[in-house]
Amino acid sequence: MKKSAYVSDLRIAIFGKNPNEKTTLSNFITAKRDGSLPRTPKQCVHAEGEWRKKPFTILKTADVFSLPLERVRLEIKKCVVQCSPGPNVLLLLVNPSDFTEQDRQQIKFFMNFFGPDAFKYAMVIITQNCGLGNPSVNQLIQDCKQRQHIMDWDEDDFPEYDHQELMEKMENIVDENRGQYLVYTEDTGPMGAPECTKPALNLVLFGRHGGWKTSASNALLGERKFGPHVESSECVKRQGEVCGRRVTLVELPALSGKPQEARKKEALESISLCDP
């Protein structure tokens, strides 16, 4: 459901599976380069900024892809409250290399809580510049009326013109919807909750050698990726669908030689990424 509003400020909600990418996009939009926005996957994070002398609000949502139904309802309600009176731009972060049809169905499901016109306010943010050969990604872009923005996440910094282009695309969404915005609705329509034929499987990979862990992840997810391995100092979350079962893999960084508190912190992070 949507209501009329005669304000032009941006109220942006970011949805996606990868908390680090959501943080990067949030900091990019708010022009923060220090990574100061917390990387907390289990709760909403609110920030504010200014664009062309107009204030805007941005909300990095929790990982609604891995939450049970009632938690999804709660997070959508939080989204509306923290973007009061309601968000007028929804950014859907998508990595084509691991985006599945089940992911698209989950997006359709939680978008229903915003009402039947939710996709009129949505834009797909492509987080990996590897082409659009993924049919589920292409269909999601069609759902969003061809609104998309591709960002090269391999670059150390994003150019200023990229920031301006993204902000103008979001302003266009607000203009096209004549200042209207989205609110929470209890009626999810005939779609109902997405069905999962098999229970989800959450795995945590331990080990010193990052390349071996990545190779194991690729084998378990049925992916074939080539090129040099890049060591990560943080937990890396990957998801996919294997034989009708949703699989979440978390690669822990090497814990050998780290103090006990650091090992405990990494273990807790891996648990949060495997919610519940």
TrEMBL record:
This is GTPase IMAP family member 2-like. Residues 41-182 form the AIG1-type G domain. Keywords: GTP-binding, Nucleotide-binding. Belongs to the TRAFAC class TrmE-Era-EngA-EngB-Septin-like GTPase superfamily. AIG1/Toc34/Toc159-like paraseptin GTPase family. IAN subfamily. The gene is LOC104941067. InterPro entries: G_AIG1, GIMA/IAN/Toc, P-loop_NTPase. It comes from the Eukaryota. Pfam families: AIG1. GO terms for molecular function: GTP binding.
